[in-house]
């Protein structure tokens, strides 16, 4: 059995969800017989990690600080193996602008978009280009922070009446904002697991059906506000296209171990929206639900992910 530090909490807007994910992972590791050291991220975290010298860290940090490569780079400096993707892949996936540019360059369908920085708005008068960008992207469109998870700061616009307000609302969450064409269709999530020494595979496609409006933060984490079809109810011919798009995105972005790729199936086209390198593992989270549907218990899922960190001679992570 191993000595595992479970990193959770932190200061991002997804702190509460991270605590739930971390607590559930901690209990699973304990049931598996590992010695677990739960660490809520704070100023003493690095010193505690140096003192503990754990065999590995199980990263359960959502949002800034956990999914952007920050803690991954720190763990590499401390020579502590860790779960999930490396610093570069984490940073790419956390930044929707970077991720979409990689997807586009790789020929993977992703909705048209334009990027605005707050500095350009404040110092270069970039607000004068908003209407032009919106027309090029096309309505309806999404306005959202480039580096924020769980649909925080997301607005849907049918026209340009509230465009400037929506952009500045998104700037409340990030200094970089995306205007992205709103794609209508079935919302499909592809949880991907990559056991050590094996190729990544989609566990089970999940179809998301919010009870009201968008699949936002409240809909994600409030029991009863979203229904799921597991497996997703899509035409048989679309399943292979969805899985191929998800796995292509996973590889193009340099992900490792596990991730979740979010897509919209519009007609026959699987549009990739983004990839999440540390998806939630709460009771309502889609990743463990998909694993269960694929015949993998929560403990087996956690152990498989951990084995990827503990495996001797594992390839370096991006």
UniProtKB/TrEMBL annotation:
Mg(2+) 1 binds at residue 262. The active site is at 14, 150, 285. GO terms for molecular function: ATP binding; D-alanine-D-alanine ligase activity; metal ion binding. Pfam families: Dala_Dala_lig_C, Dala_Dala_lig_N. One of its GO terms (cellular component) is cytoplasm. Binds 2 magnesium or manganese ions per subunit. It comes from the Bacteria. It is found in: Cytoplasm. GO terms for biological process: cell wall organization; peptidoglycan biosynthetic process; regulation of cell shape. Residues 100-307 form the ATP-grasp domain. Its EC number is 6.3.2.4. Mg(2+) 2 binds at residue 276. Cell wall formation. Belongs to the D-alanine--D-alanine ligase family. HAMAP family: Dala_Dala_lig. This is D-alanine--D-alanine ligase. It comes from Rubrobacter taiwanensis. The lineage of its organism: Bacteria, Bacillati, Actinomycetota, Rubrobacteria, Rubrobacterales.
């Amino acid at each position: 059995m191993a000595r595992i530090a479970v990193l959770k909490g932190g200061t991002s807007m997804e702190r509460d969800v991270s605590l739930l994910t971390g607590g559930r992972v901690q209990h699973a590791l304990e049931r598996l017989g590992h010695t677990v050291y739960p660490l809520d991220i704070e100023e003493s975290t690095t010193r505690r990690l140096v003192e503990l010298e754990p065999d590995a860290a199980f990263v359960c940090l959502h949002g800034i600080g956990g999914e952007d490569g920050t803690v991954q780079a720190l763990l590499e400096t401390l020579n502590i193996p860790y779960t999930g993707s490396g610093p570069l892949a984490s940073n790419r996936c956390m930044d929707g602008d970077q991720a979409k540019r990689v997807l586009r360059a790789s020929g993977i369908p992703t909705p048209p978009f334009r990027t605005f920085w707050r500095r350009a708005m404040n110092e270069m008068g970039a607000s004068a280009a908003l209407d032009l960008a919106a027309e090029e992207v096309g309505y309806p469109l999404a306005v959202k922070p480039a580096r924020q998870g769980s649909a925080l700061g997301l607005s849907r616009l049918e026209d340009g009446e509230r465009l400037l307000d929506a952009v500045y609302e998104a700037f409340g969450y990030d200094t970089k904002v995306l205007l992205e064409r709103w794609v209508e269709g079935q919302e499909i999530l592809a949880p991907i697991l990559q056991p050590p020494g094996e190729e990544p595979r989609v566990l089970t496609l999940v179809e998301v059906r919010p009870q009201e409006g968008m699949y936002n933060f409240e809909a994600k984490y409030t029991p009863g506000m979203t229904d799921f079809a597991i497996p997703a109810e899509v035409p048989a011919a679309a399943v292979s296209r969805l899985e191929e798009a998800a796995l292509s995105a996973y590889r193009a972005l340099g992900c490792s171990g596990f991730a979740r790729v979010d897509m919209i199936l519009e007609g026959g086209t699987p549009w990739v929206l983004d990839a999440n390198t540390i998806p939630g593992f709460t009771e309502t989270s889609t990743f463990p639900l998909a694993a269960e549907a694929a015949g993998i218990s929560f403990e087996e899922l956690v152990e498989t992910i951990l084995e990827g960190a503990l495996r001797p001679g594992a390839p370096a992570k991006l």
